[in-house]
């Protein structure tokens, strides 16, 4: 029996961080053994906010780093198909065929698009960014994805995919499965600055590839309770990024509970709380670092995985686009014209 398909991935804008892990990668690691899993390196999506020549020149290196991070986090390369989005032009064909199945007002209601434009310094919404959810629908539907693990930001995007799939099937006959969303247990992770979610553009990240010293340095500089000027002043745990990280990454629940009790009572300093968090994070990241080192020692492995995965995916996408064109009736119009032209040509040749 063929396994159901999962589609997930990231834009190749650099190494992945703990926010990526809690938002999507943990789900991918847990789910990919159960599904025929496609991992997209979404460089066309990257162009919506990062499209200089320098940005594009970094795609190959960033793709390698990104795939290495995913493998180091625990994804089995034998159970995953990695592919480069821009190397499959048929995805663009499908995007064109789907874009008329959704309205501009519907896309304008996707909340994260304005945030993405603002975070990338765009004063106005680029056309490609407005159409981001349609291209994402093409990504999911081109491999007939049935499951999409998503973070909080992408849930609204995938809902657009579900609407497009239903609309297409209703108009032209069933071609696409309507994908199911699987949301992360921790929807988002606040950055080390405490001001916003963890984001590479804000520089408030802890990378999956950071060494132990870098993690400790970043943790010791984390935002805490701004009203707490001394260790003997009772502090606030709720909304405190240091404790938010403890809740996600520190498996010693008794230690976390004791630290919270002492913090609220003014009986522990920020330094001790942060030191214990740094220990917990480094214990969490150590196995990831070890797997990353082994992957990096196997030179050419990641490039081979991306190449072979892209070739496999392109074959799948070509088949899907062919089915879509047939369902819509686009192939029959040209076929009739071609046959009439061929008959006319034969008649002309016979009379000439």
UniProtKB/TrEMBL annotation:
The keyword Protein biosynthesis applies. Keywords: Aminoacyl-tRNA synthetase, ATP-binding, Cytoplasm, Ligase, Nucleotide-binding, Protein biosynthesis. Its main location: cytoplasm. Gene3D superfamilies: HUPs, Tyrosyl-Transfer RNA Synthetase. A motif ('KMSKS' region) lies at residues 197-201. ATP binds at residues 11-13, 19-20, 151-153, 189, 197-201. It is an enzyme of class 6 (ligase). Its EC number is 6.1.1.2. GO terms for cellular component: cytosol. Signal peptide: none annotated. It catalyses: tRNA(Trp) + L-tryptophan + ATP = L-tryptophyl-tRNA(Trp) + AMP + diphosphate + H(+). PROSITE patterns: AA_TRNA_LIGASE_I. It is found in: Cytoplasm. L-tryptophan binds at residue 139. The keyword Aminoacyl-tRNA synthetase applies. GO terms for biological process: tryptophanyl-tRNA aminoacylation. A motif ('HIGH' region) lies at residues 12-20. Pfam families: tRNA-synt_1b. GO terms for molecular function: ATP binding; tryptophan-tRNA ligase activity. Homodimer. Catalyzes the attachment of tryptophan to tRNA(Trp). Belongs to the class-I aminoacyl-tRNA synthetase family. This is Tryptophan--tRNA ligase. It comes from Micromonospora avicenniae. The gene is trpS.
């Amino acid at each position: 029996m063929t396994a159901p398909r999962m589609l997930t991935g990231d834009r190749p804008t650099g190494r992945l961080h703990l926010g990526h892990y809690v938002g999507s990668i943990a789900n991918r690691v847990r789910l990919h053994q159960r599904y025929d899993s496609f991992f997209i390196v979404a460089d066309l999506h990257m162009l919506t906010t990062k499209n200089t020549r320098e940005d594009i020149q970094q795609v190959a290196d960033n793709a390698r780093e990104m795939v290495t991070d995913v493998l180091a986090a625990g994804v089995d390369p034998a159970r995953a198909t990695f592919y480069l989005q821009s190397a499959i032009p048929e995805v663009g064909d499908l995007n064109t065929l789907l874009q008329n199945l959704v309205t501009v007002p519907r896309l304008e209601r996707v909340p994260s698009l304005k945030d993405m434009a603002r975070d990338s310094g765009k004063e106005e919404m680029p056309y490609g960014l407005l159409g981001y959810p349609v291209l994402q629908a093409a990504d999911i539907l081109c491999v007939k994805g049935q499951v999409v693990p998503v973070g909080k930001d992408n849930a609204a995007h995938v809902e657009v995919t579900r609407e497009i799939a239903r609309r297409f099937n209703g108009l032209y006959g069933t071609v696409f499965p309507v994908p199911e969303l699987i949301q992360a247990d921790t929807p988002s992770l606040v950055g080390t600055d405490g001001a916003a979610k963890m984001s590479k553009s804000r520089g408030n990240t802890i990378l999956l590839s950071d060494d132990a010293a870098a993690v400790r340095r970043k943790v010791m500089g984390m935002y805490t309770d701004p009203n707490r000027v001394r260790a003997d002043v009772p502090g606030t745990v709720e909304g405190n990024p240091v404790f938010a990280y403890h809740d996600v990454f520190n498996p010693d629940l008794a230690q976390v509970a004791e630290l919270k009790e002492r913090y609220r009572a003014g009986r522990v300093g920020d330094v001790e709380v942060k030191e214990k968090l740094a220990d917990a994070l480094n214990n969490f990241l150590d196995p990831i670092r070890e797997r990353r080192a082994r992957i990096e020692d196997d030179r050419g492995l990641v490039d081979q995985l991306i190449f072979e995965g892209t070739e496999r995916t392109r074959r799948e996408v070509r088949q899907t686009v062919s089915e879509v064109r047939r369902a819509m009736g686009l192939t029959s119009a040209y076929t009739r014209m071609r046959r009439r032209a061929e008959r006319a040509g034969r008649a002309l040749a016979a009379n000439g």
